């Protein structure tokens, strides 16, 4: 239930931040010594970091399950392996993608760690009964995809503010986040899955 609740929030958060990375970064950072080019580079890296929010959030639940079993060694070893995987992935990519390569390394390593540790925990306790979670998580993915589609439609519609000022970036950010949140909630309700139900 904790994993489902985490994914209910983190899946749309991952996709949503990918979609709003550009206006959000420009609104927050494009002033002073940060130029438009600098903001573009920051937004590019942010998108890859954002894509890994679901795995980081899931790990917070999984690690606490290990701690409840009085096992601090497994999360420690997994974190050490995570660093190694991160380096293996990011070092070659830094030459190809610049600083965004580090973000890709983080995305890949945390995703692998979350899935592996969940699988290991399932074996450790003799089964977490994860099969009933498959349908709700699949529905969350569908709702997230619908949300992403709606946000992209808005982004390329005449309603999307155009320009290069803080008010424009604020309008872009507000419009996409609002539409995304509304569409995701409606999609979840239509698919008969909601946050309170995950607590039951």
Defining key terms:
disordered C terminus; mainly alpha; 200 residues
* Global shape: flat
Distance between the termini: 8 Å
Strand content: under 5%
User: SSE order in H/E notation?
Assistant: HHHHHHHH
Query: Which class do the helix and strand fractions yield?
Result: mainly alpha
Q: How many helical stretches? A: 8
Counting DSSP E segments of at least 2 residues, the number of strands comes to 0
In round numbers, the mean pLDDT is: 89
Parts with pLDDT < 50 across at least 5 consecutive residues:
196-200
Indicate the percent of residues in helices.
over 70%
Q: Would you spell out the secondary-structure blueprint of this structure?
A:
Layout (H helix, E strand, L loop, with lengths): L1 H28 L6 H15 L2 H16 L4 H25 L2 H25 L6 H25 L10 H25 L4 H4 L2
Helix pairs in contact: 1-2, 1-3, 1-6, 1-7, 2-5, 3-5, 4-5, 6-7
Explain what this protein looks like in three dimensions.
With 200 residues, this protein is mostly helical. Helices cover 82% and strands 0% of the residues. The protein has helices at residues 2-29, 36-50, 53-68, 73-97, 100-124, 131-155, 166-190, 195-198. The radius of gyration is 19 Å and the shape is flat. Residues 196-200 have low confidence and may be disordered.
